[in-house]
TrEMBL record:
Keyword rRNA-binding found: no
Name recorded for this polypeptide: tagatose-bisphosphate aldolase
GO terms, molecular function: tagatose-bisphosphate aldolase activity
Organism of derivation: Endozoicomonas lisbonensis
Involved pathway(s): Carbohydrate metabolism; D-tagatose 6-phosphate degradation; D-glyceraldehyde 3-phosphate and glycerone phosphate from D-tagatose 6-phosphate: step 2/2
Any one Pfam family match given in the protein's UniProt record, by short name: F_bP_aldolase
Origin: domain of life: Bacteria
InterPro entries: Aldolase_TIM (IPR013785), Class_II_FBP_aldolase (IPR050246), FBA_II (IPR000771), TagBP_ald_KbaY/GatY (IPR011288)
Amino acid sequence: ALVSTRQMLLDAQAGGYAVPAFNIHNLETVRVVVETAAEMRSPVILAGTPGTISYAGAKYIVDIAEAASQLHDIPIALHLDHHESFESIKALIDLGVKSVMIDGSHHDFEENIRIVSEVVKYAHARDVTVEAELGRLGGQEDDLIVDEKDALYTNPAQAAEFIERTGIDSLAVAIGTAHGMYKSEPKLDFERLAEIREQTTAPLVLHGASGIDREDIRKTIELGVTKVNVATELKIAFSDKVKEHFIDNPEANDPRKYMEPGKEAMANLIREKIDICNSANRV
Ligand code: 13P
Ligand code: ZN
Ligand code: NA
């Protein structure tokens, strides 16, 4: 059965590794993620944004993930990624989702706490875990001057208060990563992350991991990150190989065949990310 992210993130915290969270979109991507994770004996998180849930259909994607969890003996969570609507989170929990992110990061501190607390109350009553974000993930934040960093990045003292007052299970931090690839070399604020770790105990989440190099991801894990979110790099790997396949085979029309190169490229990247997270052979 699908699990929450409570035990897997606490295990990762105790073991000094991270659980990878891969954004999925359909049957093919769910299968590639879980089959590769199972082959490597890694716990894994399937992440679904609101766009993915409406694209795939809530009932379809929850049931596909549930099937995956029954077919493989590794911990598998279906996690709502960057959801903002309490109503739709409730509906998805009622369909069987056990792990959610309520993203109130674009609201002010007090409003973020209010929105998140409401979700925590509903979720915890149903044994569902909650991730929330404090601070804002940027576009190109490597050029930010210190004042801007202080305004946008996660404030360590506020992080402690935020976790305490909301009761969340994990905290997404803003330390210089951004969603998508980077136009110039990202510079992560490791000192801030260390300070957040010193002032808090909840598992920490790194968003925007596509485009962050191996050593930097490893360093965030050493500093307390227990969940690493990867989306864009997987989409690029998959679609690049499908495009190549159509260029080489202009007559191709069988979805059972033309998606195979994309799936294979995605699997290779997932192996690499699991290796970076150091989550293989943990189950
Ligand atoms: P990337 O697209 O940069 O990998 O970010 C993924 C993410 O944070 C999903 O929540
Ligand atoms: Zn994210
Ligand atoms: Na990124």
